[in-house]
Design a protein that fits this description.
The chain is α/β, with parallel strands linked by helices. The protein is about 40% helix and about 20% strand. The chain has helices at about 5-10, 35-50, 50-60, 85-100, 110-120, 145-155, 170-180, 200-210, and strands at about 20-25, 65-70, 75-85, 130-135, 160-165, 190. Strands 3-2-1-4-5-6 form a six-stranded mixed beta sheet, sandwiched between helices.
Length: about 220
Amino acid sequence: MKPLVVLLCLLALPVQACRLALVLAVDVSGSIDPSEFRFQMDGMAEALRDPAIVEALVHGQVALSVVQWSGVGEQDQTLPWQRMLSEDAVERFARRIEAAPRRWSNSKTALGEAMAFMRRSFEAVPDCTRRVIDISGDGMTNAGRDTATQAKAMVPGNITVNGLAIDRVGLSVTEFYRRFVITKRSGFVITATGYSDYPRAISEKLFREVLQPAF
């Protein structure tokens, strides 16, 4: 959909307070090297700068947060909740993503722990009408809580979990996310075929999360 068409459709919709609260969660476990961390952060920032995404974020007064996650007890709300009330606010948030240092580097993959942490974070944005966790990673859980149990725990809070599975070979991570991570009915998985494909995948994912539900 062309940006001008998207903008015209958005302007036709009634403005409402915080249409969406979206957590952007980044895997920083031991399998992620420094360049792969940068692919995630820089790709996320560039995706947020897409003109159609910017318009949708501002129109819906979307609340964004960035979380880095790794092993048990290693979850960090790197960028706390911020409402996207202007184009400048989106740009400032994108720059903060690019400047954010990595929180951990040699730990395990405790995805269930990260999911529990992010579920609690929505308590700070109770007025947002939709709640979505956008979680990326390149491996399966090897520590901490069970992810399927955590996915079920999202249902009472009307939280959707979507996955960005980074698969270098095959689709094993994609299948794990599809079966044990995303929320049933509402969730979906996008596959990145390696880290060089991450910018394309996160852009596609944000379009589905931020734009498509508006129509």
